[in-house]
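Q: I'm writing up a methods section and want to include an example of the input and output format. Could you take the sequence below and give the corresponding predicted structure tokens, formatted cleanly so I can copy it straight into the document?
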Amino acid sequence: MSLGFLIGVFVVALAFVLVSIIKFNLHPFLSLLLGGLIMGILAGLPLTDVSTGLAAGFGSTMQSIGILIILGVALGNLLHLSGCTSQIAALMLKATGQKRAGLAVNLTGYIVSIPVFFDAAFVILVNLVKSLSRKGKIPFVSLVTALAVGLITTHALVIPTPGPVAVAGTMEANVGWFLLYSIIVSLPASIVGGVVYGKLLGKNEKYVNDFANAFDDVDEETEFESDKNLPSGGLGIFLIFLPIFIILLGTIASMVCEEGTMAYTVFAFLGDKNIALLIGVLVAFFALKKYIKESFNEMVTDATTQSGAILAITGAGGAFGNIINATGIGDQLVEGMTGLTEGAGVAMIIAAFVISQVLRAAQGSTTVALVTTSAIFAPIVAGMAGASPVLVGLAICAGGIGLSLPNDSGFWVVSRFSKFDVKETMKVWTVGGTLSGITALIIVIILSLFSSSLPGLM
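A: Here is the clean output for your methods example:
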């Protein structure tokens, strides 16, 4: 099969996935599976290879990320039900001061969204933002921008949220290095799109005196204050970053310790993403047990239930990607790029960002965009010298932050709970997220210029 023919087949399959989701509201799980069938059949693969390839792709994806996603949801539930999220907000405000409330809200969103899903985190924190706006005489629009962008940036970039987990697994990137560089990339991106842009937006005449006065349901007594009946914000932050620290420690220790030694084996075991997050969930449960009414079994059951749709979509994305790989399109693209210079790595980063951004805008879901884009780029990057799977993966994640349109459920969560109309939501949410994504892309490109000297990138 010629490269042109395979690209044409891929475009047809991808168009089917997008149209079936957007136009006919078909569940992404079915759309991705059917897209894989169309890709395999039109590319001329034997029918038995198509069916087994779909199953194999689904299975390998579950092996890579299934446990991680369920444990991530369980950790988020523990923090949510114990009241840790509001306490983290109180701690951040105390650390930054009232004058830097936007930064406090942004950092709160940034931290909380690592284990807690965007929708739930926004709903939990938006009432605190309303109260802070009214009491601190801070433009409400500035604080909402800071919160929303902080939440979506880590949702799209930092493990253990499902999208980044799927990207790291599909790209076969080292999870420890991927995690480290995702934090380096995402934090300044969150501040630029959330805090800096939020302040500029708040200076607009329309918003400068809007201190959430339109919200009659705001509890005047609700403040960013510590509650002695809830776990401390410091404990919440520790529990969020504990598994992250264990993964990073395992990654670094495996470089220092000699392979085959007891120390190497122990650190490699503890630094495994599944073991690290399992430790984090168990520690969080025992640390927060007295603040939670539900039993541990009930929380795990809730986590598995909530994870079902995510696992289905990411697994189907892996199945689609496996069929794409089986057609040989990746190998042919690599062969066509062998004559390119070292600048091909930057070109690949930009291409990954653009395609992820387009898919995000087209069908609304960050997770689906990241899963689909990583399935496209994984076989290409694997066979191409000079392209870092970590950096290309981060570029894919960055593309999933911005261009959120009314086909995205997050768009309406921000709109309804902030009481913004569509135009205002576009200014706050769509533009702010896009600025964060572009900032992340710029940082990834800068890192790529030093990829040969920075650890873990090649």
